[in-house]
Amino acid sequence: MGAAPASRDVTSYGMGLAVPLALFFLVFFVAPLLQLLWLSLHNDTAGLHWGLSQYQHFLTDPFSLGVLGSTLLLGAEVTLVCLMLGFPLAWLYQRVGPRLQTIIILIVLLPLLTSVVVRTFAWIVILGRQGIINATLQSLGIINTPLKLLYTQFGVVIALAQVQMPLMTLPLITALGRIDPNLDDASCSLGAGSWRTFFRIVLPLSLPGVIAGCTLTYAAAITAFITQSLVGGGQMLFMPMYLYQQASTLQNWPFAAAISIIFLLAVLAVVSVFTTLGRLSRGYGGT
Amino acid sequence: MVDAPSGRSLVVDAVTHRYPSGALAVENINLDIKGGEIIALLGPSGCGKTTLLRIIAGFIAQTQGRIIIGDGIVDALPPNRRSVGIVFQNYALFPHLSISENVSYGLAARGIDKADRQREAQRLLELVQLPTMAERLPRQLSGGQQQRVALARALAIRPSILLLDEPFAALDKNLRLDMQIEVKRLQRVSGITTLIVTHDQEEALSMADRVAVLSHGKLEQFGTPSDVYDRPQTLFVNTFVGSTNRMPGVVVSADRAAAKVRLDAGAEIIARPAAGALTEGGRVTVCIRPEHLQFVGDETGFAGVVGMSLPLGATVVHEVTTADGSGVKVSQARFGETRALESGAAVRLAPLAPSLANAFPATL
Known about the structure:
The structure holds two protein chains of two kinds.
Chain A lengths: L3 H9 L6 H22 L12 H8 L1 H32 L4 H16 L2 H12 L4 H8 L13 H25 L3 H9 L4 H29 L2 H8 L6 H11 L3 H29 L6
Helix pairs in contact in A: 2-13, 4-8, 4-10, 5-8, 6-11, 8-10, 8-11, 9-10, 10-13, 12-13
Chain B lengths: L9 E9 L5 E10 L4 E5 L6 H9 L6 E6 L2 E2 L10 E4 L11 H11 L4 H14 L15 H14 L4 E5 L7 H18 L2 E6 L2 H7 L2 E6 L2 E6 L1 H6 L4 H6 L4 E10 L4 E5 L3 E7 L9 E6 L4 E3 L6 E10 L3 E8 L4 E7 L12 E6 L5 E5 L3
Parallel strand pairs in B: 3-8, 3-9, 6-7, 7-8, 13-20
Antiparallel strand pairs in B: 1-2, 1-4, 4-5, 9-10, 11-12, 11-14, 12-13, 14-20, 15-19, 16-17, 16-19, 17-18
């Protein structure tokens, strides 16, 4: 509570410096977005008649709603996998020596240093019918016929989780690093076991990081066009590909624009839930 | 739910701890602490006192030796089963829990139901004189108040031993004195065996029944405050606890009780062989505290020239340069009009009594 006036000072004198970026955003982000909105409010592809029929079409079409639903679900699954795998890694990071910390950071950052396309093709090699997993399992005699891993929801979730992992792990490492290590010892000396310490102390205090990580991972996972399309293949359709088809293949620009707007609103709704949770959890953060 | 349980004894038995790198953190420490005692672990930073505290608490497993609380060897017990209460230097209050929840945290871990927990937390908050703060968050409290909460939280689990890690270091001077009195009062009320880790000698001397002085991982001396201050067993203890003048010299004659030393500053004085017998002709360091030196009118003692006089309130400290060029400090109580000593005045100095000059074999 004492930090509030200080942070207000910080924002007040730097406004002029933000003007170039604000102009950039205005021209290359806000203007196209308005154009998109304008486009979506037309009933025909030629853009002659105004109306809400594109939205009406989307919201009454089970297929479109199904695509939206499966995309949002995909984001939730990827986020959950990243959280379950990323939290132990971030926790471990705070408890090992500096050399291991460097190695962990390197492992976390490595995916960011290779192209998404390359990483996605690597997953195709791993998950394919004659891929590494199937070849290994078959040679060990565990399975007779190859498992279907590629072009499945499971495959997409695993590949996306690996691709987006740094977005979850880095905020978690930061958040866990801010927790005073004495709190762990204090909890322990008061008689609490590791689980109570984790759920009563570590987890609540790392919530800002959990929420930041989840927001980033979620937003990145549902919009990951390349990985979704290549690992998901033709049978799995998610929002980015759906809207690409409408715009590029079918030339149905107003409907594609409406899809974009609806998708944008859906994502914003989810993200704002996360940030609201984040604000509530910061009530006791104090840093 | 009765207060004033008789405190449990704590024995540190030949404890040695080696870091993974092989360096010794503490070496062969032996402490025999009676139930209900307040003990101070005193030493400069890096002397191993915090390591020893963490070994007793169970956060570090010592390489060798045993920790015995009451009748039980606790080496195999994790920290959460040792029943040791700790007050951390930065208090380590849980920032997201209310004061009441902080205090009752240990009780919740023991499965005590909520109503009893709250009643007990309130009782402890009254004990530390913060009865109205139960619903606040730690950051809404001042440093001194946070420390009281940390104390209440540690006491809530009715620990066998209370460990305080530099508890007053973060408080300003006036508040520190208040809190020292408060801690001593609470310790008397609860009768709990208490170990205070500190680098502040005044704190150690004023609060503890006995003081353990550590240096470089070794126990230098373990005794009452007056033992440590008046009868130091090592040169380190003599120089670390209180201030002292170190005067080099040569042993002229020596027996077990007294040694005659010829100081390089130019006088023969009688000193106490503080670290055992001295050999004749050996070089020694004689330690005399500034308040144990006096100006003498006759030809006894050694000569010097007054450099500067600093009036420090209750005392005046004179800096005197001796014949061999080294400086000594002399502290005089100020009563009425203390004789003013001008810079450059020739004076003679002698120790107040032979037992107040401690001779240690000179280290090469």
